[in-house]
Design brief:
By secondary structure, this protein is mainly alpha-helical. The protein has 2 domains: 34 residues, no CATH class; 34 residues, no CATH class. The chain contains 3 helices and no strands. The chain starts with 29 loop residues before the first helix and ends in an 11-residue tail after the last helix.
Length: 79
Amino acid sequence: MTAKNILFIMFDQLRWDYLSCYGTQHIKTPNIDRLAQKGVRFTRAYVQAPLCGPSRMSTYTGRYVHSQEGSWNGTPLRW
């Protein structure tokens, strides 16, 4: 089995309805559309927290928000 390349892109403040690959008509995003066409595009995605900082910390660490003790924006990881 050959190894697969993975490109994980994380945006701040980018909603699905701001991308033309999801059907929006008022914003053109040709480069992201091209990546979406060649890769995987999710139609149901969930985050660990409604705030961006704790949600990103969960993605980086693989831990739930309550176990990393960073439940607010601007709160650094303690470990």
